[in-house]
Structures are given as C-alpha cells and as structure tokens.
Amino acid sequence: MNIQHLKAFVLAHQLGSISAAARTMGKRQSQVSQWISDLEIDFGVTLLERTGNSIRLSAAGEELLPMMVHTVSQADKLTACASALSFEEPTLLRIGIDNYIPQSCLQAVWVKALQQLNVNLEVSTNSRKALLVGLDDGSLDITLLTEHTTLHYSDFDYCRLGSYRDVLVAGRSHPLISEPVVTADHLSANRELIWTREAMTDDEEVGYSPTYATFTELASLVAVLQNGVGYVMLPYDQIAPYLATNQADQRLQVLSTDFEQAAMSRRVEAVWQHGLSQTEQGKLLLSLIKTEHALLVE
Fold first, then answer.
1. Rounded Cα distance, 274 and 78, in Å
2. What is the chain's mean pLDDT, rounded?
C-alpha cells in the first residue's frame, strides 16, 4: 500500500473523476488509474465502479473511504511536521481573526506575543470564509474563528478556546423597548441593522427581519440605534460602552427574547497549519493564544 495510491483514490472520489484527480496530482490519467487498480489488488476488493467516464464508490469503497481519508490526512500532517523540523524558525507569523470576535479579548495575547516572540507578526481581520481560504492557500498561519458547523478539521490543527456573548439591543425610544419579552414576530416586523465591518459576503446568515440595513462602521450604526431606528445583534464587549446602566439612562438597552432563554454564547476556535507547533516561535504563539485570551471559559 502506497500513500500516493490512497491519495489518488480519495481525490478521484472527491473530484468526481480519475482525470480530475490526475490533473490535481500533476500525473497522467493512466498512471493514476493504475495506482487505484494497484490499491484494489492490495486490498483484494473493488473500490470504484467504472462506467464509461464516470465512477462511483463500490460498497467496499464506501466502507473504507473514511479510513483512507484519515490516513491521507495523517500522512500530510506527518510530512508538514517533519518539514517544519527540518527548516529554520519562521521569521513571520500571519494571524487572521474573524470579524465578529471582540478584539478586546485578544489584547493581552498581542502584548505578550510582541514582548516574547522574535518574529514579525501580521494580524488582520476578515470573514470566516476568507480566513479559511487563507489557511487553504497558505497565506495565513493561524486563524481565530467563530465556531460554525465544522466539528473536525482534518487538514489543520485546532483548539476550542472559549466564547464571547452576543446581545440584542435597540435605542430607548424604539417600540420594542416597551415589549416585556420580544418574539421572533416582533423582530420580523422591524428593521434589523447589521454590522458587517466589510462588504456583505455570500456566507452571511439569514437575519431576523426581511428589512435591514448594513453598516461597516460601528459608530454610524450606534448613532442610528440611539435615534430609535432599528435593532442589532452584537458582541457584548463591542456594544457595552453604549448600554444603559439604569432605567433613566437614555443609551441603548438589551432586549429580552422568548427564543433565547440563556446567554447567547458564540464559541471561538483557533485553527492553524500542520507543523506550526513544531517550531519554537509557533509553539510559543499558540501557547499565548490559549492562555492569555479573555474569552469566557465554561
């Protein structure tokens, strides 16, 4: 059994054809086809059922595919770790942060990192989708992401760190403030404001209302809220300076809803390139991220 043969089979399944797998691997189609045939001989089972130019997994292929994907992933991780050990320490580490993660939770990390690391740091913010692309193409070393639906990253190392809290807020003169408990119907009937920090992207979640307005600048959004127009969901740390502290305070107020019975927590995960933790500078930065963040730890 050869790792290249396993990779050829996995790619053929993922890309839908042997020719596509061959292009990705930079090999001839006949060679990749032969590798898969050799793998079938080694295993003693048929992995792919071929009909003309199309392929589909056999019953045995479906059974073995998850194990082969895991084996290929571990082999890639081994190669990356060995490569990191064989080269000099990095001189630059690039960190991407999800737009919605409160920067205040990470200030201590950057202070300690700049004091203790002997590398240049590039810290940027972007959408979750763009950050994952950066990991894939190697333009980022580490990302800090708001947890989504991915339970396991086979192509990267990762760690769940903690969480930040979202709150739903409106201005004191907004009609929703008079509602003791806000329902989804209430929200749907009023304009929602959305803080994007950037242009809207394809992966934006569906909001509470069909009527909305987007703002890249938080100060402008807050000014609109303070005039009694719209409501918004924001990380508590971002909006806390603008929140009312008592009933007479005319600043923004948190809304209570019937569909969120507990605090709205958003978990944060660190995701990084295989092999980074094998370098002294990468290991130190990851340790600082894990120990110095100010996220909520349950």
1. 8
2. 88
CATH number attached to the domain at 92-160+267-292: 3.40.190.10
pLDDT tens for residues 199-211? 555 545 568 999 9
Cβ 32 vs Cβ 22: under 8 Å: yes
Count of CB atoms situated within 10 Å of the CB of 30: 10
Q: Tens of pLDDT along 20-32?
A: 989 999 999 999 9
CATH dotted code for 3-86: 1.10.10.10
Q: Which two tokens stand for residue 50?
A: 């071929």
Query: Per-residue pLDDT for 170 more than 70?
Result: yes
Quick check: 234 and 101 in contact, CB under 8 A? no
Question: Of residues 263 and 11, which shows the higher confidence score?
Answer: 11
Name the region of 138 (left: φ>0; alpha: ψ -120 to 50; beta: rest): left
**244 has pLDDT over 90:** no
pLDDT of amino acid 247? 63
Domain boundaries, the chain: 3-86, 92-160+267-292, 164-265
Is there a shared CATH topology between the 92-160+267-292 domain and the 164-265 domain?
A: yes
Strand pairing report for 212-215 and 231-235: unpaired
**Three-state secondary-structure class, residue 109:** helix
Distance CA(40)–CA(43), nearest Å, equals 5
Q: DSSP strand E in the chain: where?
A: 48-51, 54-57, 92-98, 120-126, 142-146, 157-170, 192-195, 212-215, 231-235, 253-254, 264-272
Overall fold of domain 164-265: D-Maltodextrin-Binding Protein; domain 2 (3.40.190)
Mean pLDDT of 226-249: 86
**Considering just the CA atoms, what is the radius of gyration of the chain in Å?**
25
The share of the chain scoring above pLDDT 90, in percent, equals: 56
Q: What is the residue type of 223?
A: A
